[in-house]
TrEMBL record:
Gene3D superfamilies for this protein: Peptidoglycan recognition protein-like
Organism the protein comes from: Kitasatospora kifunensis
Protein name: Peptidoglycan recognition protein family domain-containing protein
SMART domains assigned to the protein according to its UniProt record, in alphabetical order: PGRP (SM00701)
Record region (Disordered): 170-226
InterPro entries: Amidase/PGRP_sf, Amidase_domain, PGRP, PGRP_domain_met/bac
GO biological process, one term: peptidoglycan catabolic process
Start and end residues of each Peptidoglycan recognition protein family domain: 1-150
Amino acid sequence: MHLVTRAQWGAQPPKSAWTQVASTRGVKVHYEGEPVPADLPDHHEWCAGRVRAIQAAHLANPTEGWIDIAYNAVVCPHSYVFEGRGPHHETGANGNQPLNLAHYAVCAMLGDSGLTEPNDALLNGLCDAIEWLRREGGAGPEVKGHRDGYPTACPGDPLYAWVRAGAPRPARAAGAPAGHTPPPGASGPSWPGGRRGSRGPGRGSRPPQPPEPPPTGNRQPPPEQE
Ligand SMILES: [Zn+2]
Ligand SMILES: [Zn+2]
C-alpha cells in the first residue's frame, strides 16, 4: 500500500481533538461530487495539492463545522492512500453523528464530471485503504456507499456499482508488468472491464494469485501482505 502521511501531504493540524472510535461496522465510500480533471490519471503530481485543497475547503466550510478534512482517507487514481483523520478517529463525512460513528469514510478522487469512472489503480487504492482501516482501526466487514442511509448522489453511479458488487479488488495489480498478467480465465476480468462469465470462478473460490511485483524505488515493503 502506498500510504501518504499527513506530514507528507502537508496537512494542517485539526482545529480540535478528533473523537476517538474503538471500531466501526465498516467503511463508506465517497467521491468528491464536483468536477475532477479528466486527465488527473496522468498527473499524480497534482494529488497532494488536491488533498490540501479538500482539507482547506472543509476547514472553511461555514455550515459543517468540520475540525479537519472530513474523511479518514482519500485515494487517488494512482493507488496512493492519503491519510485523512486516519484510524480510530470519527469521520465527519457520512451525514450525521450516528452515521459517522458507524462507519469510516474513504473518498475517491472522482467527480460528478470530468473523471467519473474509477480505474483499476484507484480501486486497488480503495481496497488498500479499507484493509488499512480494518487492520489499524477495527473497521468491520461492511463496505457501503455514502448514499446508503443518507440522501445523496455520492459516491456516483460508477463507483456505487463497484460497491454494490462487493468492492472487489481488480484482478491484476495496478502497474504489474504484462508478463505477470494471469492467462485468460485464470482469474476474473479487471473491473470494470467486464463481467464474470458463467465459467469464471465464483466469489469465495478465488484461484491463487501471482505474487505482486516488488515495489519500485526505495519504498519499504509493507509489513504484511495478504
Ligand atoms: Zn460522500
Ligand atoms: Zn495520485
